[in-house]
Amino acid sequence: MGTVLKLPIIDLSSPEKLSISQLIRQACVDHGFFYLTNHGVSEELMERVLTESKKLFSLPLDEKMVMARRGSRGYSPLYDEKHESSATYKGDSKEMFTFGSSEGVLGQLYPNEWPLEELLPLCRPTMECYYKNVMDIVGKKLLGLVALALNLEENFFEQVGAFNDQAAVVRLIRYPGELDSSGEETCGASAHSDFGMITLLATDGVAGLQVCRDKDKEPKVWEDVAGIKGAFVVNIGDLMERWTNGLFRSTMHRVVSVGKERYSVAVFVDPDPNCVVKCLESCCSETSPPRFPPVRAKDYFHERFSQTLASYSGSG
């Protein structure tokens, strides 16, 4: 493990919106990562989600494969995701379970896969409660502060059709954590950036998350991100980086094995699939033209998932 990176801590309960938005701006420019405290989602609910997650991943493989990922939701076994292009890299040492809202058009287009109620009676209600809490209490408020940080109207992401409280997805992740017998560094999640707007991460406190603040530098310098009990680790995704013309950084990160099993829960606050992401006028000029062409969110996700997920079919 390397040096521990001291990330900014943002208190979501602060009534000082403008000053908090400026702290968020600085964090997104400097790191692309920050801690979010006093966010309103109870520690008790976060613990219940981790408990149900452990039960789900403890099911026999054949029971889990009944929920196998179809498109964007469902169960993904070990090595299904692969961010490295090396022919010798077999995939990330992690298993995942992804779900989203069951409501509205998106819930019909992308149905969730759930364990049978007789196997895990509390799993679905716990996960649905968590989704609703995070989106209702944290998601909209945090995106409003991000908009203010960009000198935009607080409801900007709603105005442009980006914020849709049914578009987010939650991913439960289990990292087995075994160390390579040869002494080689092993990754539960190989180096990558997230695809969407912002990610809210809760963990069980086991170490392993690392960030690389300069993805163009060789050799890459990796710094450890410690957990703060009850806090979310928040990071900027690729589409937010595109909106801001690179001002806000979609920072490369990974999870390395530390010889101990690790569980985490990531909420990807993604834009509505039909939202077109294009450079904000305030983030470009004659001397700093748009670095990225406009892209529809659905098309961007399809391209990235096709490159990284063995089980991705593009049909859900």
TrEMBL record:
Domain Fe2OG dioxygenase per the UniProt entry, residue ranges: 166-271
Keywords from the UniProt entry: Iron, Metal-binding, Oxidoreductase
Keyword flag Metal-binding: yes
PROSITE patterns: FE2OG_OXY
InterPro entries, per database record: DIOX_N (IPR026992), IPNS-like_FE2OG_OXY (IPR044861), IPNS-like_sf (IPR027443), Oxoglu/Fe-dep_dioxygenase_dom (IPR005123)
Any Pfam family: 2OG-FeII_Oxy
Transport is among the record's keywords: no
Family statement: Belongs to the iron/ascorbate-dependent oxidoreductase family.
Annotated protein name in UniProt: 2-oxoglutarate-Fe(II) type oxidoreductase
Natural source organism: Camelina sativa
Lineage of the species this protein comes from: Eukaryota, Viridiplantae, Streptophyta, Embryophyta, Tracheophyta
